[in-house]
Design brief:
The N terminus and C terminus are likely disordered. By secondary structure, the chain is an all-alpha fold. The two termini are about 30 Å apart. The longest helix is centred in the C-terminal third of the chain and has 27 residues. Helix 5 packs antiparallel against helix 6, helix 6 packs antiparallel against helix 7 and helix 8 runs parallel beside helix 10. It has a domain of about 80 residues: Tetratricopeptide repeat domain (Serine Threonine Protein Phosphatase 5, Tetratricopeptide repeat), CATH 1.25.40. About 40% of the residues are buried.
Length: about 230
């Protein structure tokens, strides 16, 4: 037996670790992501993107001081990095300081010369939370033009369209979000909510069942990981 091939298969590269960390973040497994990012940063301690994602993990785990410290140090290290300002905007968003968050998000957009769809998505969310749905609609449309394959862009536009009582259009955007990400439980729940408003009761109930099934699968996956 050639043990060299086995050893190669067992070797995990820093790139693999980082990729797994991103996947964990996307699935909301922030503790797992934090563990993986710490591992990755042993290999690349000055990697700013990984550092900022570590800060976001702390933020979503409600460890605000740890997140704020990371973002502060990152800003001191690179005052022209738009990702730093976007992360600070996210921090203030979760503290319901929407006007401050908008200011930081605006700085991020100016620094990147308005090339990041995620920043326009964030601005749309912030204006949505301020009940300024016209501005929210403006920025989500910009985000969709910049990145037409992001399911969250269509999900958020559907929320705004629902506020405008454009229910058919809202369902259409939720259909797009689900097509892009079939395991998007929140999109199914939101589509159920909209369908109830247009008396599509049986379709709404079916969407709720699908969402529950997806969430149950995710819970089982988390339980399996915890038992390893």
């Amino acid at each position: 037996m050639d043990t060299r091939n086995i050893n190669k298969e067992k070797t995990v590269s820093p790139a693999n670790i980082y990729e797994n960390a991103i996947t964990a973040i996307q699935k909301g497994k922030y503790e797992d992501a934090l563990h993986l990012l710490n591992m990755f940063l042993l290999f690349e301690p000055t990697n700013m993107n990984a550092t900022l994602k570590k800060g976001l993990c702390y933020l979503y785990l409600h460890q605000i001081e740890s997140a704020a410290e990371i973002f502060h140090d990152a800003r001191e290290a690179d005052k022209n990095n738009p990702h730093v300002y976007a992360c600070i905007a996210e921090l203030f968003k979760l503290q319901f300081e929407f006007d401050i968050a908008i200011d930081f998000c605006d700085r991020a957009i100016k620094l990147c010369k308005d090339t990041e769809a995620d920043y326009n998505l964030l601005l749309s969310e912030l204006f949505f939370y301020k009940y300024d749905f016209d501005m929210a609609f403006t920025y989500i449309n910009k985000a969709i033009i910049q990145c037409p394959h992001n399911e969250y862009n269509y999900y958020w536009r559907a929320l705004i369209l629902k506020r405008f009582e454009k229910y058919d259009a809202s369902v259409s955007d939720l259909n797009k979000a689900i097509t892009l990400y079939p395991e998007f439980a929140e999109a199914y729940r939101e589509r159920a909510s909209v369908r109830m408003r247009i008396n599509e009761v049986s379709e709404a109930l079916n969407d709720i069942k699908i969402a529950q099934h997806i969430e149950m699968d995710e819970e089982n996956e988390l339980l399996h990981v915890a038992m390893l």
